[in-house]
Design a protein that fits this description.
The complex is a heterodimer.
Chain A: H1 2-29, H2 33-58, H3 62-87, H4 100-103
Helix pairs in contact in A: 1-2, 2-3
Chain B: H1 6-27, H2 31-51, H3 55-77, H4 89-109, H5 122-125, H6 127-138, H7 144-152, H8 154-175, H9 199-208
Helix pairs in contact in B: 1-2, 2-3, 7-8
The chains are: A mainly alpha, B mainly alpha.
Chain lengths: ~100, ~210
């Protein structure tokens, strides 16, 4: 029972790796910026899941902490990229209507 | 196939993706994609650090690499173009030579490294064993790394914190995040390298032509 659960975890980790490789292909070849933003975001989610499964495989609970940290920090890069793409600047506050009149492309 | 441990196979998968991402960062021209690929690189390397039992390093990599450095790279990209120009092959040969020599020297030095967990290696023999022996009695902490960083070498860590704070402050001022972001543009030889997004730059260019 113990070993079957172990191999189930290993199999899930390998399928997550395959999913990460597919997302990497989309990230490299993505024609538009939005494909790449979506691929990076999904890649972060896959990494969170992979770390959770991997910490079960090696039997350490510390991996769960890092997975939670990733889940908290994953959106920062996405928001920064999208804000940069919208306003061409990083120090404009994201309130409705602020700065969009003068900075909108 | 059956005698390879499963974690080693997962490690090899992670390393293969790291290699692909590294080559893509070198070859791609779109700076947006390169910034995002660097975030992916740090995600992958932190997962690899976890599998190497270096959980504290993985924590640092997750916080710095995936969070802050992407934003700083975007701020740096704000001051330049969005596409990189290809470098001529003749200019790359010298750096390729240096990198090859350094890589060969590092591979040569692998043979001199102590075995993993060797009790007689230099890191474990002298002061390291004293730290490990004294942590349980002098400092009531379960983690020896925390005891070394925060107590035995507390002044060292304090100096590192000051250095990192100064470096962060310098980078923020350099990127113009003190309120001048987007108002200053790099203009070598009077050209507006940031493109024609600024109406000021447009009128200046019109004046000169």
């Amino acid at each position: 029972m113990e070993t079957s659960l172990y191999y189930l975890n290993v199999g899930s980790a390998m399928f997550l790796l395959i999913g990460m490789a597919l997302l990497l292909g989309r990230l490299l070849s993505g024609p538009t910026l939005y494909d790449r933003v979506l691929a990076v975001n999904s890649f972060g989610t896959k990494t969170v899941l992979f770390l959770a499964v991997f910490s079960l495989i090696i039997g350490r609970q510390d991996g769960i902490d890092i997975a939670i940290l990733y889940a908290l920090m994953n959106f920062i890069a996405t928001i920064a990229v999208l804000k940069f793409f919208r306003y061409s600047s990083l120090d404009i506050s994201m309130e409705r209507g602020s700065g969009s009149e003068e900075k909108a492309p | 196939m059956s005698n390879i441990p499963p974690t080693l196979m997962l490690d090899m998968g992670l390393m293969a993706m790291l290699l692909v991402v590294a080559f893509a960062v070198v070859r791609l021209r779109s700076l947006f994609a390169i910034v995002m690929l660097q975030g992916v690189y740090s995600l992958l390397s932190a997962a690899w650090f976890v599998s190497l039992d270096a959980v504290d390093v993985a924590f640092t990599e997750a916080a710095v690499g995936a969070g802050i450095s992407t934003v700083l790279m975007l701020g740096a990209m704000l001051l330049t173009e969005r596409e990189a120009k290809p470098v001529a092959m003749q200019k790359q040969l010298g750096s390729l030579f240096i990198v090859t020599i350094t890589g060969l020297a590092l591979f040569y030095a692998i043979g001199d490294m102590p075995a993993f967990g060797d009790a007689h290696s230099a890191a474990n023999a002298y002061v390291g064993s004293d730290y490990i022996a004294a942590t349980k009695n002098n400092i009531i902490l379960p983690n020896v790394v925390t005891a070394v960083l925060a107590s035995f070498r507390g002044y060292d860590t304090f100096g590192e914190v000051v250095v990192i704070y100064m470096a962060g402050l310098g980078i923020l001022l350099l990127l113009g995040l003190n309120g001048n972001a987007g108002k200053w543009r790099a203009q070598p030889n009077g050209q507006d390298v940031a493109g024609n997004r600024n109406s000021n730059a447009d009128s200046e260019a019109g004046d000169k032509s």
